[in-house]
Amino acid sequence: MEQYCPVLQVVGYQNSGKTTLMETLIQQCSALGKRVATIKHHGHHTPQKQESNLKDSERHQQAGAEITAVEGGGSLQIHIKNQSWSLEQMVNLYKSFSPDLILVEGFKKESYPKVVLLRDEKDLALLDEASDIICAIIWEKELKVVEVDYPIYHLDDSVSYSEFILEKLSDDDE
Length: 174
Known about the structure:
Blueprint: E1 7-12, H1 18-31, E2 36-41, H2 50-63, E3 67-72, E4 75-76, E5 80-81, H3 87-95, E6 101-105, E7 114-118, H4 125-129, E8 133-138, E9 152-154, H5 158-173
Parallel strand pairs: 1-6, 1-7, 2-3, 2-6, 7-8, 8-9
Antiparallel strand pairs: 3-4, 4-5
Helix pairs in contact: 1-2
């Protein structure tokens, strides 16, 4: 019998705080006894250099993730080669390991529930590009976000957005 496993994406442009938020969520979910798996999108069309791309994956492991992978440039860094890996293929692969939760860093255009990180006005376009947004986290308090049907949090309000995200993830468990 297949076990249901929630998937949550953390998306944003480069240096928006995705990996830092991932670490926080991994630590919080692990502290609750959840087996966390992570997938990081390399985001470049060139083959991965092992040292540079493992940095974020190692941060995921140190935060408590039991399974990690980095995808990009036609390879999935668990030593499996394929022409390209879709997020759906990786999620299905991970489900065979029975994690309680899969956290995904990147893959902006996929359709899993998302937390969107926005540094400044230039990043607002991501709200139109992304689907299935559950909340957004902004760096600048003055950033004007047009009416949306999900909560907007400031980066400094980590208690509120962490509680909201964990609540959403526990709702998916039921």
